[in-house]
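re the bet — no i am not wrong, look at it urself. input seq straight from the record:
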Amino acid sequence: MRVYVFGKFQDKRRVREVQAKLIEAGHTITHDWTTHNSSLLRNPEKRRISLTQDAINDTEGVRRADIGVGVFIAPLPYEGPHSEFGMAIISGKPVILVGHAADKNVFSHHPLVLVTYDTIGDFLKNQKLFRYAGKVRIKEAHDV
């Protein structure tokens, strides 16, 4: 399955952990935004061009995904991840949330949010993503 994992750049270690486990399980990450940080560029024109390309790449990653996974563990200001979360919802993509730092976001209660896990550990041990009748489903480990 094609997955876009969104989270805060300052929390990219956790995002990479989730991405690695999804890849290990046979899924494809549609865009790995954790490998660069355009906001660190000092030249304003290069920074603007790079940020524009980042926005295009992130949007395309969400668009190509079958499902979004949001990593909201740490209490950080989540501007970008909330945008990607919204893009997933408006595109009709199901979403899995990991952590509760987005609980105050009204869209964390949207019907397309399949489940919210407390921790990355819970996410990794308790679920398997699969497709059934054209829809993304989660098979809980205790259901096996």
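see?? The mean pLDDT is 87. told u. also The two ends are 20 Å apart (CA to CA). so pay up
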